[in-house]
Amino acid sequence: MNRLNKGQREKVRHFQAITDCNESFAAQILRSNNWNLEAAIEYVFAEGVEISSIKPSVLEKIYKVYKDKDEDLIMAEGIGQFCEDLGVDPSDPITLVISRYMGADVMGEFTKEEFFRGFQRLNCDSVKALKKKLPALRKELKDSHKFKDTYEYAFSFSREKGQKSLVLDTAIGMWKLLFGIYSWPLCDQWCEFVEVNHKKAITKDTWFQLLPFAKQFPADLSGYDENGAWPYLIDEFVEWHEEKNMKE
Questions:
Q1: Quick one: pLDDT band at residue 187, thresholds 50, 70, 90?
Q2: Which of 81, 99, 171, 179 sits a CA distance of 20 to 30 A from 152?
Q3: Which GO terms describe its molecular function (predicted)?
Q4: Across the strands, what pairs with 110?
Q5: Is the dihedral of CA 227, 231, 234, 239 positive or negative?
């Protein structure tokens, strides 16, 4: 805790006393809640976060296996090895769930803090232990509420650094990956529409609203109200879809 100021160290001690967790985990949760002690405690108990007792020294050894030779990061090569050790393909949607638990900011790299956070949140002290949790994590992709968390996380995770919107090709790839799980029957048509007619980056509003749109309306889009509060791109898609069906 040497890098923390006096007030932060005091909050870490209070948090540990209440949750019986280790120092590193306490600092991590407090930091993610802007050092608001009450909010951090409420988050842990309200969200059912597992309290980790894993020592940072244990995670340090795992981290070093995958860390880049030149950067204090786990980069593409290390992530590839990490996935291989877990027995999953890097393009497997389960990697998104793991990245969400890590709170990874960008695709293609994990910081030490992110890597530690993921193992601590999942209460795993080895790659073998994490591998055993994969079936449970896969179930999260079938749970509508937790799928929503992963879907929304995918937007920020997939953006290029410093960009507010998501590059179209990346968005299409992510939609096909995620809606392949959710089985939205109009996914291919939506991707065709944005690729041919939109040709621009995807905004956060469009990304976030597409999932409830996919859940709410059947494949024929009956019941859609053009006066509803949907993004303009979804309005245009519905119009395009209707015109296309009329021609066919």
A1: very high
A2: 81
A3: cullin family protein binding; ubiquitin conjugating enzyme binding; ubiquitin-like protein binding
A4: 74
A5: positive
